[in-house]
Each structure stands twice: as structure tokens, then as C-alpha cells.
Amino acid sequence: MEALAVKPVIKVAALCGSLRKGSFNRGLLRSAIQLSKESVNGMEIEYIDISPLPMLNTDLEVNGTFPPVVEAFRQKILQADSVLFASPEYNFSVTGPLKNAIDWASRPPNCWADKAAAIVSAGGSFGGGRAQYHLRQIGVYLDLHFINKPEFYLNAFAPPAKFDSDGNLIDPPSKERLKEVLLSLLAFTLRLKEVLISEDFFGVTCARRHRLSTDISQGESSSFSLWENGGCSMAHRFCEDRNSLADNRFTGPRTTRPCSK
């Protein structure tokens, strides 16, 4: 009897943009962690506390090294397969603590490159949506690949009650929507990992990777010629999947600066 195939498990780093103890957005992450254990097979979510990080100051970098708390945070991001952001909206944008964490992990070598990501938010009437749009813009330069759908903005104050007094998510429909986000992130992460592994196998360089992702988004196939001499079958698979990939994230030209691993 053949051994059953083991489904890969992705590691997700969960970051909250609010430092408030009873944060609704932190509550979303707690609910996501619970859902991943109960009903989303193949996903492990770890909450990463960003509150200990100092404000970004490159004077703290000495001979290419970072303060221990910063280095520990960077390693957590590097080791993750994907990232789940939860953040309120402050003045139509992301919060200061979250931007600070993003900036620290973007210091060379960039820890965010080639990771899948998803965003959830809770707040006032728009549910933190404007912060999500700004975070997506930031992700373009960082080579983060956000899922486009489903979107999750939650009005935390509209009836019926969405959270209890401790900031825990208690609304069943919202939990179901959150589960859909996790399932989408899981599927896209596995797909993106397959793409990157295939590129490494066929020796696709970072610059060509950026060109390839652009071609995928624009419906071109010229970059697939890079995989002649043994790569035809994989190139054919890419041709079949390119529209689906474009639907998830690849949405335009990307920078050609060297990738950091």
C-alpha cells in the first residue's frame, strides 16, 4: 500500500498594527489562529509581537548587524512562507508601529521578498479599508504578493456585536469570511512556492523572475523561452496558470533590483 501524500504545511507570520491590549485587529488574528487549528488544514499561524521593536534608526545597524530584538523579528519573517496583516486605519493609512516593523524587515537583505500575503482589518464604517490600500502599495516595492480576493473589512461597531469586551471575534458570519481569507492565502502560498521552486530548478535569475511575473500579468509568453532545453512541460503549465496567477496578485511591472533570500 502506497504511503499517503503528506500535505505541505505553510508557516504564516501574523502581524497586528495596533498595540492596544483589547485591539479588534488583534482579535481577528486570534480568531485566525483558532480557525487554522480547527478547520484550515496545512497552515500554522504564529503571532509576531512588533511592540518591542525600536523606531527605525540606521545608526542602530553596526557592521551589517541589527539589534537582537530586530534580528529576531527579521528571522521570523524570513522563516515564514506568507504573512497575515491585521491593522486598523489611522488617518487614512497604516499605523506607525506596523510601518516601522515593515521598514525594519525591509532593510537589506529584504525579508519580505517573494512571500504571499493577506490583509484583514476592523474599524469604523469602512472597516480599515484605506489602510489596506496603502499596505498594498507598500507591498509592491517589497515584492510582497497580496491575494486580491476575498477582501475583509469589518465594521467593528455596527450591530450585531462583532467582538466581546476582550476584543475576541464572536460574529459567526465574520468568522466564516475570515476562514475564506485563510483558505485563499493557503492556496496562493502553495502555488507561489511552486512557481519559485520551479524557477530555481530551471535556473531563472532574479531579474528574469521579475520579467516573468510581468509577462504573466500581461498575458505574454516570451519569458517561457528561458526554459527551453528541458523546461517545456513546466512552461506549458505556466501558460495554463498565468491568468489565474494574475488574478491573485501579479499586477504590473516590478522592480529588477536583486532579490534577497
The number of helical runs is: 7
Contiguous uncertain segments of 5+ residues: 212-261
Q: What Rg do the Cα atoms give?
A: 19 Å
> What is the strand content?
5-15%
> pLDDT average, as an integer?
81
> How many distinct domains?
2
* Shape-level CATH architecture of the largest domain: 3-Layer(aba) Sandwich
**Strand/helix succession:** EHEHEHEHEEHHH
- The helical percent reads 40-55%
Number of strands: 6
Structural shape: globular
CATH-derived topology of the largest domain: Rossmann fold
Oligomeric category:
single chain
C-alpha end-to-end distance:
39 Å
Q: Largest sheet, if any? A: 6 strands, parallel
Please characterize this protein's 3D structure.
With 261 residues, this protein is α/β, with parallel strands linked by helices. It has 2 domains: 181 residues, 3-Layer(aba) Sandwich (Rossmann fold), CATH 3.40.50; 47 residues, no CATH class. The protein is built from 7 helices and 6 strands, in the order βαβαβαβαββααα. Strands 1, 2, 3, 4, 5 and 6 form a 6-stranded parallel sheet that branches. The chain is globular, with a radius of gyration of 19 Å. The relative contact order is 0.14. This is NAD(P)H dehydrogenase (quinone). Its EC number is 1.6.5.2. GO terms for molecular function: FMN binding; NAD(P)H dehydrogenase (quinone) activity.
Keywords for this structure?
261 residues, alpha/beta, Rossmann fold, 2 domains, six-stranded parallel beta sheet, 6 strands, 43% helix, globular, FMN binding, EC 1.6.5.2
